[in-house]
Amino acid sequence: MAKDQDPQSKRRSMGDFQLLSFLPLFVVAAYWIKIEAVLFVISFMLPLMLAFQELIRKPAILGEITPPKAELDPLTGLVNRQNALSRLSAFLASERNTGRETTVLHIDIDRFRLINERYGMEAGDRILAELGDRLKSCVRDIDVVARIDGDDFAIVLFPIRKSDFAVALSIADRIHAAAAQPFSIDQTTCYLSCSIGICLSGRAPKADAENVLASAQIALELARKEGPGATRSFSPKMRREAG
After folding, report:
1. What are phi and psi for residue 236, nearest 5 degrees?
2. Residues 183, 123: contact at Cβ < 8 Å?
3. Gyration radius (Cα) of the chain, Å
4. Which of 41, 125, 204, 212 is the most exposed place for a label (fewest CB within 10 A)?
């Protein structure tokens, strides 16, 4: 007759059985930990990879950081109309299939002719140069600030998400605030304001540089009609209003 298993061995056998019953859970937990580790690495590295890709992509879009002198406005040191249109074309090409839009702000100094008449052309030139510096302080380094003609300026914003139109409005507010700061002319102080027209590339009749800039100018003309310091955003119906 076989001897009964001693209690200690019996407890050991039951413990081994219970341990083995938990083995599948240990295996699942190990795989889960590995998966979580992989997901953590991906979530950490992906933004870095995208940022690195953006850094590589931007120089190709922006072209030369310092344009040749022929593409600079001699008075303000800003890029001229030709260079601004070239940069705008590059931005428009880069936004395709990205869910982003390029934004143009067309800026005009209100009643600048009166400033020239009162203070002289030389003082007017100093105001234009200083305003150009103030405009650059309102935007990012990757954005383009240009003197288009006379007292007209343009800012081309690097493509932003379509839902971020508030960014353009925020920059317009900064421009109004910057322009409202006093300008010193010899022993006197001069105050001025700007009218601003905004166009998002998706709202222009055609998504090419000339059309987007022209649409921003239409919005600017309607802003001028509203009075000093106004901002208008382009929509297709504005072509009829401007006419």
Report:
1. -55, -35
2. no
3. 31
4. 41
The torsion region of residue 39 among left (phi > 0), alpha (psi -120 to 50) and beta comes to alpha
Tokens of 101: 């839009």
Cα distance between residue 106 and residue 147, in whole Å:
10
Q: Which long-range contacts (CB under 8 A, 24 or more apart) does 136-141 make?
A: 136/78, 137/178, 138/171, 138/174, 138/175, 138/178, 139/171
| Statement to judge: residues 124 and 197 lie in one domain | yes
Q: Do 44 and 102 sit in the same domain of this protein?
A: no
Per-residue pLDDT, 19: 46
Phi-psi region of 108 (alpha: psi -120 to 50; beta: other; left: phi over 0): beta
Q: How many domains does the chain have?
A: 2
Residue 123 and residue 42 share a domain: no
Query: Taking a C-beta distance cutoff of 8 angstroms, is the pair 229, 176 a contact?
Result: yes
- Which uninterrupted H or E stretch holds 67? none
| C-alpha span between 156 and 88 (Å, rounded) | 7
CA distances from 227 to 111, 118, 193, 224 (A): 10, 21, 10, 5
Query: Residue 167 is part of which domain span?
Result: 67-242
pLDDT tens for each residue of 159-199: 888 767 899 999 999 999 999 999 998 888 999 999 999 99
pLDDT score, position 162: 74
Give pLDDT tens digits for 121-134: 999 999 999 999 99
Kindly state whether residue 2 falls inside one of the protein's structural domains: no
The string of DSSP letters for 96-117 reads TTTTEEEEEEEEEETTHHHHHH
Check pLDDT > 50 for residue 64.
no
